[in-house]
Amino acid sequence: MVGNVFQVAQKLRNGSLIPSEVCSWCIRRSQLAKRLNVFITELPDYAQQLAEKSDERIALGKPLGLLDGIPIAVKDNYCTAGIKTSCASSMLENFYSPYNATVVQKVLDAGASVVGKTNMDEFAMGSGSLDSIYGPVRNPWSRVYARKRQMLTAVTSSAGVAIQQAQSGHGVSLSASQRIPDNYDDSYKSFSMEEDDWLIAGGSSGGSAVAVASGSCFGALSSDTGGSTRVPASYCGVVGYKPTYGLVSRHGLIPLVNSLDTPSMFTRCTDDAAAILATISGIDVMDSTTVQDCSVPFSLPDDASIEGLHIGIPEEYHAPGLSEETLDTWTWVADLFERAGAKVTRVSLPHTQYSIVCYSVLCVCEVASNMARYDGIEYGYRSEQALSTHALYADSRHTGFNDVVRGRILAGNYFLLKRNYDAYFVQAQKVRQLITADFRRAFDAGVDVLLTPTTLTVAPPYKEATQHDNRTMSAQEDVFTQPANMAGLPAVSVPVKLSSQSLPIGLQLMANNFEDKLLLTTAKWLEQQVQFNRLDLVEDSLGLGELVH
Amino acid sequence: MACVIITNIFKRNSFKKLGHFWYARSLSVAATRLKHDREWKAVIGIEIHAQIYSKSKLFSGSGTEYAYPVNNQVGLFDAAIPGTLPVINKRCVEAAVMTALALNCSVNKVSKFDRKHYFYADLPAGYQITQQRQPIATDGYCRCIVYNPAVPKYREPRELSVRIIQLQLEQDSGKSLHDEENGYTLVDLNRAGVGLMEIVTAPDMCDGEEAASLIKELQLIFKTIGTCNARMDEGSLRVDANISVHRPGEPLGVRTEVKNLNSVRFVAKAIDYEISRQIELLEDGGKVENETKAFDFKTGRTVSMRDKEMKQDYRFMPEPNLPPLRIYDSSDAVSHLDAHQVINVDDIRASIPTLPAAKRTHLVDVCGLPWADAIKLSSEVNLMEYFEGILRDAPHRLPKTAATILLKHVLRCVYKAKCSIADCNLAPQRVGEICDLIDTSKITWDIGAKLVDMVFEGETLNPAAIVEKNKWHKITDNEVILRLCQTAIDENPKAVRKYKEGKKRYFSTLIHHVQNKTEQCTDSFVVMDTLKQLVLCEYSKVTQES
């Protein structure tokens, strides 16, 4: 079912489609994508019930809004009333939230069908979606990648020229659907857990990213603390958008780092991101850090001109480890902008290099604090250990959390000790201010949008990714993304092109706080220019796309 | 001083015997002086946790009623359900600002919240939200009166000013009930998240009585402005005392903290016990340990709280979910903000009712009451209200009469009936009418007292009518009084004789005789004077005759 929210909504309005059909299609897709380990909790019956209510409303000509009847997936760190909210952790494996997160309530109120709760890194700590008690999430491009590699190997043996051409980046318009005519869904079936020749989805919101990429839903709610949405978006070839901090309520989002966490989303296109933002944003009395911004809701113009738009290219983002292909793509897009009349200049964000270290300190401090509530008393995993209250705590927390979570708690508590507080926490906060000031300076100097890579490389294979520990990996994967969280900026990762190995390369756009409309408008322009070939979901008989059995 | 005396003795060495005698004596004098000059001085600072009187909790919408069914006032946030966030209660902030102003503090326009971490079963989040770095108010003072007629040292009312270092907003914890027998700990979260004002004083007090006076004054202030019901028995006001002793001129001693004192009397007792314990310990060559103690009211001693001995590092961290708390004044431009969202310190200042200290001063300076009466009246909000009720709409009424009638007679009835002034049926206005009869000399004080008894018992006639009905008018005719007194003398020759022999108390027999004859309608002072004159006169007559 190719198409975006707007196209489907139009079909729903004119009666050529009904919500329960759309829902069934997505549920089918999610069944086929099962091996990718997208969902922690699948909700086919619930989604179908919601869709049937949409059927009635739409038949009466009274849809609740654009999202009425649209299947949506929700990351498992959002509280959902009566539905397990585990954060992919043993600690909350038995936790059924008594309430809905504000964003969940808002999508439900808008008539969307929630198809499931998506897999993630435990408590969103990670950037690979590998550290989940439910197992890792797999990148749907894995099969494409495997095929391509086979093909390249074949080509290499016959003609080396082809590789050169493929690796040069420019002019390569490999499309999954063009070059890999195989049955896409069969590729899932051929996966087995033993096989480690697959690609990671990126994290921590990998499940939500793959849910959108695989067609299991049209949009997915995620969170972004240091890149948890943009990194998997880049790896999975979908749009990953983190709005300005404060625009969307965090009430009901199980926190990682309160001052950085931003409810975010994956969509098939930038228009859908604007549509979901319109639904979920707004001041919330339950979250004192939300703000009223009158520029929201907005929709994106179809024929926006970028004439005169000032694009900044931060030179510090030429980081070590940046792949040749990503660099080329970055340059290529910068040229696209320039040719279209935008002013493209280099800018300097000198404190970028300290950002990841600063992020690590702030992150673990808040983690140590936020995780203190998981003691097994009121909810969550409770050990049988009953020697004393403290023995109960210690054992519940030891068993309930994985190594990554425990390691961060330990580090955070160390930094927060009275004797260390100034040297680490206070220092990190000062550095955070400097990073924010860097951005402020660039925007004050007239830059409208910053253009950077989202990740250093395309999605790495599982084998490669697991050579590093979680901490090293986060430091690598989040290097381009977490500065935006430090400053609260809106940022979006847009899939731009496929690499020589037929894997998506995403670029990141960042704008000043509350310039979300400008950001997404620019992103939409880019999207229109590059015509990225999404993972093809094959046309179906309903006129939008065909379902492959 | 001691040294000087000893040197002198050596100079007097030639007078050996005398010198020896001097030497011995002077040593003992020196020792006494030494002890006297360098006596121990106690230094006491207080920390108060006052529950804010508000319908809902500091950061959640759940209720705050005392003794509510267990775990029935627990919101999602109070139980630290994941994903919930704190939302500040405006009423709590206003109460803190009002309290801060009443304690002469400067209110900080921007204050911040911090997390204080420790693991305890009744602290569901694993941290308490408090204001460690930037509290809502700082630098105030509270003036109280140290006065206790039962103790000679405090019989004279004395004003004490105690500096307030800071006032901060924070969450209360839940309650843990330890079932030692079965090895359970039961947790009640009804109290978890109730708003507290933590008030920290400077170490400006030096004994239990002074600390108790401060607590009483604070209770009074809280009740007057309605920011805390100040019930120590219900735990809505809790006191921790920091106590150390040192010799003047020396650095402050090591302090101990006595926690959770739950009555004013225990505050005084615990502090005084702890002071003498520390002095004794030091005099015996021991060392005071910095420890947390509890007061055992059964034994009157302080005991170590072993479970809290471990040194805690609270790992303070800014609360990231609450933006800085901003408080405005009339000079700030707040037009762009919703008026309901804004807390204006000037508006709150204007709404503070007259505080107890000002009322006391008014009673003494303007109403001419003695300090003791002023202190007594202002010691209880209801009593003060009753007093003001007596004087309401009656500018002619004398406050002194009203105070006497209320404190002596109305309270006597109240105590006897074992009720309180708040639920006493006797309307203040009727007491006022009795005062008027006294002020206009229509009745005597004794009749006034009798009228109070009668109306308190339920007599429905108004006081003037009762007087009319019983013919209880004050006898003012001097001839009549003279005659009554003469009769008393004539009919009590024995009392007159005894009095003349110097047994003064027999004189009252004569007064009572007249009073009883007239059903207390004579002014006892007038009777006394008249009797004195008559007896003296007779006395002189007798002496002349002999």
TrEMBL record, chain A:
Domain Amidase intervals: 26-181, 199-520
SUPFAM superfamilies: Amidase signature (AS) enzymes
Catalytic activity: L-glutamyl-tRNA(Gln) + L-glutamine + ATP + H2O = L-glutaminyl-tRNA(Gln) + L-glutamate + ADP + phosphate + H(+)
Descriptive protein name: Glutamyl-tRNA(Gln) amidotransferase subunit A, mitochondrial
Record's subunit section: Subunit of the heterotrimeric GatCAB amidotransferase (AdT) complex, composed of A, B and C subunits.
Claim: RNA-binding is one of the keywords in the record: no
Species per Swiss-Prot/TrEMBL record: Priapulus caudatus (Priapulid worm)
Active site positions, chain numbering: K75, S204, S228
Similarity remark: Belongs to the amidase family. GatA subfamily.
Gene behind the chain: LOC106811502
Function statement: Allows the formation of correctly charged Gln-tRNA(Gln) through the transamidation of misacylated Glu-tRNA(Gln) in the mitochondria. The reaction takes place in the presence of glutamine and ATP through an activated gamma-phospho-Glu-tRNA(Gln).
Superkingdom of origin organism: Eukaryota
Keyword set includes tRNA processing: no
Known EC number: 6.3.5.7
Pfam families xrefs: Amidase
Keywords: ATP-binding, Ligase, Mitochondrion, Nucleotide-binding, Protein biosynthesis
Subcellular location: Mitochondrion
InterPro entries assigned to the protein according to its UniProt record, in alphabetical order: Amidase, Amidase_dom, AS_sf, GatA
UniProtKB/TrEMBL annotation, chain B:
Protein biosynthesis as UniProt keyword: yes
UniProt xrefs under PROSITE patterns: GATB (PS01234)
EC number: 6.3.5.-
Broad enzyme group: ligase
Quaternary assembly: Subunit of the heterotrimeric GatCAB amidotransferase (AdT) complex, composed of A, B and C subunits.
Annotated function: Allows the formation of correctly charged Gln-tRNA(Gln) through the transamidation of misacylated Glu-tRNA(Gln) in the mitochondria. The reaction takes place in the presence of glutamine and ATP through an activated gamma-phospho-Glu-tRNA(Gln).
Protein name: Glutamyl-tRNA(Gln) amidotransferase subunit B, mitochondrial
Organism encoding this protein: Priapulus caudatus
